[in-house]
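[Archive record]
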Amino acid sequence: MSQLDLRAKLAILADAAKYDASCASSGTTRRNSAGGKGLGSTEGMGICHAYAPDGRCISLLKILLTNSCIFDCHYCINRKSSNVRRARFTPEEVVDLTLGFYRRNYIEGLFLSSGIIRSSDYTMEQIVRVARLLREVHDFRGYIHLKAIPDADPELVRQAGLHADRVSINVELPTVAGLARLAPEKSAPRIEDAMRDVRAAIDDGADAGRRYRAAPKFAPAGQSTQMIVGADAATDGDIIARAAGLYDRFRLRRVYYSAFSPIPDASAILPLRHPPLMREHRLYQSDWLMRFYGYAPREVAEAADPVTGMLPLDIDPKLAWALRFRAHFPVDVNRAPREALLRVPGLGVKAIDAILAARRWRRLRLADIARLTASIARVRPFLIAEDWRPVALADRADLHALVAPKREQLELFAA
């Protein structure tokens, strides 16, 4: 490991970090260096972990401090028994990389995670040192997201939150049974205790900020978590219930879902194939329903198949729920409250806000709704407009086939 140069380390540890999905960045305190002090900014368009059209990951420098680990979690490519090339940064190297990339306008912030080396406390100390050097020595004002280690001393996690915009602690798997089977060295109660401590520190920091202007901020962008989908036997219903519980108890900013990916030299107890990536997408859609559309967790789970507990892959959860509960439809777009309009498949929050604004002045027709949605054919069975009422369409037995997206073979060289 000592023979690797910085470029080789970066290649290894940036690639090893790709399995962690929970590195979006939003909602933090605005900071900038416009006054000539410090380096970096969190203003402007905002910082987000995103993908360019050609697949490049942009905005955040997303790396591991090291991919060495004393744990042997079955699903992790960096586990102790894995046959992968190892590398390790020093805190100073991470700082130099972050500042160098920022000055070249490659990044706007840092996402830093790590395997566990020596002990949880030692590793957390190294992570905190990176953030402290950036903030206190170099006055870096860009975005910092730190991955906290649940088994580390709570004081170290508290220090991380004083320097980072966001702190995340991964629950790893949706169920306690799955965690015990695939990561026996990790403890679900300890993970939740650490998340509870972070939540309490965020609340204390917010309360102190209201009382004292100079009070230090603690993780102003909140905390998030990630769970792996498809590595254990958890159903989509289990995952939805778990996510809802985490949102409720810890007021998380986000729950991220990462589809399990088969790894080299995998354990025999892991699945041989990865789950459909569409399953991950449907879980994100179900997450959106709970966070922005007013669906209760129980209602989102009702969109899943009652036998298998899995969300349908061919249609989104909102449409699946509407097909199962047709008694709630059709909805009159000229009279229904916002809560009812949010249940109409194919209508997003912005479209509904436009409907509510427009109907104050005139009665809306089907053509008006068509301008607000990508597929009016999917919306028609579920709404009533000034010139439209789905008398026969809403009760058709083959409605699923009529509103489900048509599968098409994409052409590589299509115009």
Observations:
- Confidence is low (pLDDT under 50) at residues 39-48, 50-54.
- The longest strand covers residues 57-64.
- The chain is about 35% helix and 10% strand.
